[in-house]
């Protein structure tokens, strides 16, 4: 899924390591709870929590830092302002942040395009998850069945709900980018004789 697109404005107040830590802990807790529900194993849930927190956190930190390099030159409040304005489709009030809105909107578009190329993997995993959930319903205990159908529900949401949500976000980012380009153009000196 779109790692950069999923990082909300308040997380951009943090440096890359902080963004990664928050995202990694959230993923670790979420999927660790799945393991606990399905297997009833605290040890398994702990392993998933630790491994996924480290892996996903590192990935988010690296992807966000690489996707929007201009963020390095801003403080946390400025990064959050740019992200919020872009995600809401609003103009930034500080004209010096306008070029960064353009840059962040471009990062969102690139990330969304990369995700589109991987959609077939989600379709394949969803088909396999449905087959596994049906099998678990017939042969497995209640916890396993519930966990399997929750995974199917999440995958279906990723296939059906998320693309529309992402399209609305990219539309708003495009509006913010257009506004930021107007601000940038109005500030450029003219070469009138």
UniProtKB/TrEMBL annotation:
Transmembrane segments: 20-37, 43-61, 117-134, 146-162
Keywords, ordered alphabetically: Membrane, Transmembrane, Transmembrane helix
Keyword Transmembrane: yes
The organism's place on the tree of life at top rank: Bacteria
The name this protein goes by in its record: Uncharacterized protein
